[in-house]
Amino acid sequence: MLGGLAASLLALPMHAGPAQAQRQQRQQRQAPQEPGEAKRLRIFNWDDHLSDQTLEAFARATGIDVEYDYYRSNEEMLEALVDGPPVHDLVMPSDYMVDLMRKRGLVQRIDHRRLPNLKHLIQAKPFQDPPYNPGLHWGVPHLWGSAGIGFRRSRVAPAPTSWKALYDSERHKGRLALPGDPQVLLGCAAKYLGHGLNTTDAVEIGRLRDLVLRQKPNLKLFTPGGAENLLLVDDVDMGFCWSGDIYPVIEESPEIGYAVPDEGAPIWVHTMCVPAKAPRPGNAHLFMNFVLDPQASAQIVQTTRYATANESARKLVPAALRDNPAVWAPMHVLPRCETFVDLGDAQKLYDEAWAEIARG
User: Which of 13, 248, 252, 301 has minimal Cβ neighbours within 10 Å of its Cβ?
Assistant: First the structure.
């Protein structure tokens, strides 16, 4: 088990002295090794979701050399796995992509016996038994974030607590921005009306469409992504945002705030998965267990500014990050949050609803 080892190595300075180097060498010899596998690990991940410090600590702990390739979208990652040679041992797709990959046989089952640090995960359904990854058999939750309402503090006080502020109010008329993606737009409306985020009921989808149509005269625009830049330049007072996108905007301007509505919200979860043809799956399991160590997870949060699925790491993170909703959605809201899933044939209902909204 790498738990205490991860903590001690992550605490070391980047340039260790002779005594520390000797201690690291002893620890490397004591670290578990995967028989029959070359001492290499090749990771395919988003460019900002791990730190050099984590990779170097793992290499010191195990003697395994780490190579790191990055992608800019789930689709880019999928194309490389399908069309390219089987060179990667670990990938980190988003929730909906995990669902697609497991259904296509592109990821292998996770061996929980090799991951004693799974015990540190948040004890909530999105991190224990999500619909895209039942029983965590196909991957391990890593980093996550939320959707919510970004707002200008001087114009919106107190902070919004409900999707009503965006979907069902004439206040701030002409200064509101909703998402232009049909599933996101109607999914947030569904949370407001008490429906499931991924409802496929035609009657419920009709209600969501009508809600947006009634609110449309109060909007400034539908945004292709989030409204964080519109908030920054004072084009809107409130708008839909993703936490990871609005965090740097808040850092730039204290005038900008972010809130996760009490009804719950969409969340995204990036998941550590082992490709079906991974050449070194044992080393991938060693790395997953290393990252699941609370000290390692806490260090990743401080580097990336994304929340970790590791509940034990939360108390190790500075309060300025732990209590910031643009990093960590409030824990009391989390039970009402959901991830998006593939809508299947119901996608047509969403597209039709969006077409009516666009015309209306």
Answer: 13
SS3 string, 1-70, reads: CCHHHHHHHHCCCCCCCHHHHHHHHHHHHHCCCCCCCCCEEEEEEECCCCCHHHHHHHHHHHCCEEEEEE
Q: Are residues 257 and 277 in the same domain?
A: no
For residues 111 and 304, give the distance between their C-alpha atoms in angstroms, rounded to a whole number.
Answer: 27
- Per 3-state DSSP, the chain is made up of helix, strand and coil in percentages (nearest 5) of 45, 15, 40
Examine the pLDDT at 333 and tell me if it is beyond 80: yes
For residue 304, being part of any structural domain is answered with yes
Q: pLDDT tens across 183-196, in order?
A: 999 999 999 999 99
Q: Are 242 and 313 in contact (CB under 8 A)?
A: no
CA-to-CA distance for 188 and 184, rounded, in angstroms?
Answer: 6
Regarding whether 257 and 186 lie in a shared domain, the answer is yes
> Given the structure tokens 């990252």, which residue do they identify?
291
Token output for 31: 């670290």
Check if the beta carbon of residue 271 is closer than 8 Å to that of residue 98.
yes
CA atoms within 13 A on the CB side of 99: 14
Same domain membership, residue 315 and residue 245:
no
Q: Say what the pLDDT of residue 33 is.
A: 55
